[in-house]
Amino acid sequence: MRNLSRRQKAAIIVRLLLAEGVKLPLADLPEALQGELAQQMATMRFVDRATLRAVVAEFVSEIEDVGLSFPAGLEGALSVLDGTISASTAARIRKARGVEFTGDPWATIAGLDPDLLMPVLENESTEVAAVLLSKLKVATAASLLGRLPGPRARRVAYAVSLTGTISPDMVARIGRALLAELEAQPPRAFADGPVERVGAILNFSPAATRDEVLTGLDEDDRGFAEEVRRAIFTFANIPARIDPRDVPKIARDTDQATLITALAGATGDLAPAAEFILGAMSKRMADQLRDEIETLGTVKPRDAEAAMNAVIATIRELEAAGEILLITEEED
Predict the structure, then answer these.
(1) Domain 74-183: which topology?
(2) pLDDT recorded at residue 66
(3) Which residues form the Flagellar motor switch protein FliG C-terminal domain (predicted)?
(4) Whole-prediction pTM value?
């Protein structure tokens, strides 16, 4: 192997890996190093096979001697610790050291609880809100947009159509600014708000308990009671909140015996929900379930309520995974 500098050897390895289709995270390198690499590669032409084999052998030898590597700089350390320390702690460390976030802020923002992003959509300019929606997963963006008031949702949706001319640098700056703002928020003792917590508890409470609690909330705080009602999703809400096209997916993810018990026990005011589920299935599947329901006969109210709660739990899991979307009252 002729006398090659370490920069030349690095350029050879990078060129070889790129030729093999390996995607290298070179953007994570300092800009100065990226520039030096590009300049070095620009000065090189051909490398014979013997030299290439020698450079690769030396590279592999050095890699095998490395037992463990740590990220360079504080930002790299915070990236490794992401998910193991709180966002507020990371924000305090950055602020104390004057460190600016240098990774991809949108990757971090996309992993945040959607509820944390709602204030951005509600209070920031429509342009910033449009950029945020454009950088999120489609299911998450659709869910957040559906929670906005109609006029605001329309303005933000229209602003999305104007984001095509925004430069990547501007999008990155917006992401860093939003992430700094979101990380600076004080930590919350509870992940969900009071409405969501009460709604989740009442979701799986016996119907009699749920009605009694809501009646009491009406007397104490009618506004809060109405918000809790909107947060509650029970078996009776299925026809109004579920897209019929999602019913087969819900049925597949629910234990069949549990689904049959829930449908068999859905009588009286709950009968429309059972008919909605059966009507959204194929005729063959619906007829098969009707035969199973007839064979099962009368179901104890306690067993029926437990089965219905299991169906609701499946729906909530599918919604959380972004596989289905619940229809909001505004959409309805």
Answers:
(1) Annexin V; domain 1 (1.10.220)
(2) 65
(3) 216-326
(4) 0.43
